[in-house]
Amino acid sequence: QEQFVESGGGLVQPGGSLNLSCVGSGFPFSDEIMVWHRQVPGKGREWVATLWPGGVLMYDDSVRGRFTGYRDNGKNTVYLQMNSLKTEGTGVYCCQKAGSKTWGRGNQVTVSS
Predict the structure, then answer these.
(1) Are 74 and 29 in contact (CB under 8 A)?
(2) In 10 A of CB 14, how many CB atoms?
(3) Residue 61 carries which DSSP code?
(4) pLDDT tens digits for range 1-42
(5) pLDDT for position 11
């Protein structure tokens, strides 16, 4: 059974940084494309970043240059380093294996002064 457990969220002031992590299990982690999304109040789910097994990364325009995704296949973990956070970055951040129907509970990130 696939599982995703996120951690690392919290409250941060605009311009601050947070590092999120997500541990995946129940599938061959190193072979799979991993995706970060965020659930934004009033807007629904937004794609944030995609991490390919070979290290290729793609980011939504709203976070490119400020967010960095990376993975440690030995730990079955993907990370999202978020710098220069903006108030519109507030939301519940979740990770998922591409194509999976399973989601983790996500982690709340609140950007507020």
Answers:
(1) no
(2) 13
(3) T
(4) 999 999 999 999 999 999 999 999 999 999 999 999 999 988
(5) 97
Those residues with Cβ within 8 angstroms of residue 54's Cβ, 6 or more apart along the chain or in another chain? none
So what's the pLDDT on residue 59? 86
E strand residue ranges, the chain: 3-7, 10-12, 18-25, 34-40, 44-51, 57-59, 67-72, 77-82, 91-97, 107-111
Residue type at 32 in one-letter notation? E
Cα 95 from Cα 73, distance rounded (Å): 15
pLDDT at 55 over 80: no
pLDDT digits (tens, 9 = 90+) for 74-96: 999 999 999 999 999 999 999 99
CA 39 to each of CA 36, 44, 74, 105, 108: distance values in angstroms, whole numbers, following the listed order: 10, 5, 28, 11, 9
Q: Which residues contact 64 (CB under 8 A, 6 or more apart)?
A: none
